[in-house]
Design goal:
Strand order of the largest sheet: 10-9-8-3-12-1-14
Radius of gyration: 54 Å
Strand content: 15-25%
Length: 463
């Protein structure tokens, strides 16, 4: 077996020796560095092969860009609105929680105090009001029997009403201050509870709401009482004399025998004048005479008239007429009205004033005319010669006739004054102040309380 393998080994050995001899001339260099078989040098870098884009698209147009910008702005706006909405919800929720905690902490005591104070004020005010109304009724019952003391009674009543009105205003201001102090006290917005659950019971919220409603009711009652007091004070002023006047002429009814003669101290030869008065008509017809001056030749030299809703002034006859509409309210004839009529011969400018305001003005009225002297000046009537006088009645020199019942004035008249010039706007506005002292400013032709005035028929002076 051994001898059989020995020749085979010798053959293999000889084959190896032959191979070594065949390649013995070549040198083998062993490189122990890292072999980079895929390294590409600069010289051997291949040129890139052009390749087409996977999705080729043309440039965007102008409209595409605008639409994309709009979409982006819309998205941003929606995001901002959503953010603002979230902020408002969070803030309102926190504010509501703070208000509820504040009401729970301070609403009980403060609400009770406000309610108690309001009830007390209402009771006091109601008592004062009843007392004043009772006194007013008693004064009304005794005023007709004691007319001489009406001025003092009116002043006393007005003082009482003013005092009552001031008390009502003071109580209303105190109640407002109490409410303001209650809801602006320190600590509002802080809560003594630090727990996580800050909810207010429903019954407590209803109690606070009911107290607020009661407080609103008290305030509304005080406001109504104040309005009522102002109306009572206004009516009391209308019942008595205006502008500090201490007396008035009473024309109890419409009659051709009831009038008042005025006897001026100076002659009425005038080229300008202003006549003013306070009137309180009982009834007004189509033509009601307030002031009339004329002579035998022309009974209509001066006329200050009232219509159904208007005031009229004539100079030298009805052809020269100035009319102001809307001066008289036919439904309200129990109010004092201040009227003035002015005229100047230089430019013929005639004007009417009501309540201290110019309500009508007309140029060219009897321009260059001079009022004649020797006429008769009346209040509440005019001598037009329509109705003959009876033999028993006295005659005014220069007149052949009497008065007309349809033109007679019925009511009260006070503060009748006349000047020989045109008063300024400021002077007339001061005379028309119902709470002023217009009766103290007397005219130089006719002066109220100084110039002689003779009542006839049933006309009389009252206090």
């Amino acid at each position: 077996m051994f001898w059989w393998r020995l020749p085979r080994a010798v053959c293999m050995l000889s084959a190896c020796v032959c191979l070594v001899l065949a390649y013995g001339e070549d040198d083998f260099e062993v490189n122990y560095a890292d072999p980079y078989y895929n390294e590409i040098t600069e010289g051997d870098a291949p040129e890139p092969t052009p390749s087409s884009a996977p999705c080729s698209s043309s440039d965007l147009t102008k409209w595409d860009k605008i639409f994309s910008m709009l979409e982006n702005s819309q998205m941003r706006e929606n995001m901002l609105l959503q953010y603002a909405d979230d902020i408002i919800k969070v803030e309102m929720g926190s504010l509501r929680g703070e208000m509820l905690r504040f009401v729970a902490q301070y609403g009980g005591s403060c609400g009770v105090a406000v309610e108690t104070a309001g009830r007390r004020m209402a009771l006091q005010l109601e008592g004062r009001l009843r007392e004043t109304l009772e006194r007013l009724k008693s004064k009304d019952q005794t005023s007709s029997a004691a007319a001489g003391n009406s001025v003092g009674n009116s002043n006393h009543l007005e003082a009482m009403l003013q005092q009552l009105l001031s008390i009502a205003r003071t109580q209303a201001s105190r109640l407002a201050k109490l409410e303001t102090g209650c809801f602006s006290s320190p600590g509002a917005g802080t809560s003594p509870k630090t727990g996580s659950d800050s909810r207010i019971p429903v019954n407590q919220e209803q109690e606070v709401t009911s107290r607020e409603l009661a407080l609103d009711g008290v305030l509304a009652a005080l406001q109504q009482t104040r309005v009522g007091l102002e109306e009572v004070l206004r009516s009391s002023r209308q019942r008595y004399l205006p502008a500090g006047c201490e007396m008035a002429l009473l024309f109890p009814m419409r009659s051709r025998r009831i009038y008042t003669s005025v006897i001026p101290d100076v002659p009425l030869s005038l080229s300008s004048f202003t006549v003013c008065m306070w009137v309180k008509p009982t009834i007004v017809s189509n033509k009601t005479v307030l002031v009339s001056y004329g002579n035998r030749r022309n009974p209509y030299e001066i006329q200050l008239l009232l219509g159904q809703t208007s005031a009229l002034l004539t100079i030298g006859g009805e052809a020269h007429l100035v009319e102001a509409r809307g001066v008289v309210n036919p439904g309200v004839t129990s109010e004092w009205i201040h009227l003035c009529g002015a005229w100047s011969s230089e430019r013929g400018l005639a004007s009417l004033w009501a309540g201290g305001k110019k309500v009508a003005a007309t140029p060219g009225v009897a321009e260059g005319h001079v009022l004649p002297d020797g006429g008769s000046l009346q209040l509440g009537q005019e001598r037009n010669g329509c109705c003959p006088l009876s033999p028993s009645e006295s005659r005014v020199p220069g007149f052949e006739g009497g008065f007309d019942t349809k033109l007679a004035f019925a009511g009260k008249m006070s503060g009748v004054n006349m000047w020989d010039r045109v008063l300024s706007e400021e002077e007339i506005s001061q005379l028309a102040l119902q709470e002023g002292q217009g009766c103290g400013q007397r005219g130089n032709i006719v002066a109220w309380g100084v110039t002689e005035m003779v009542p006839h028929g049933g006309a009389q002076f009252i206090n």
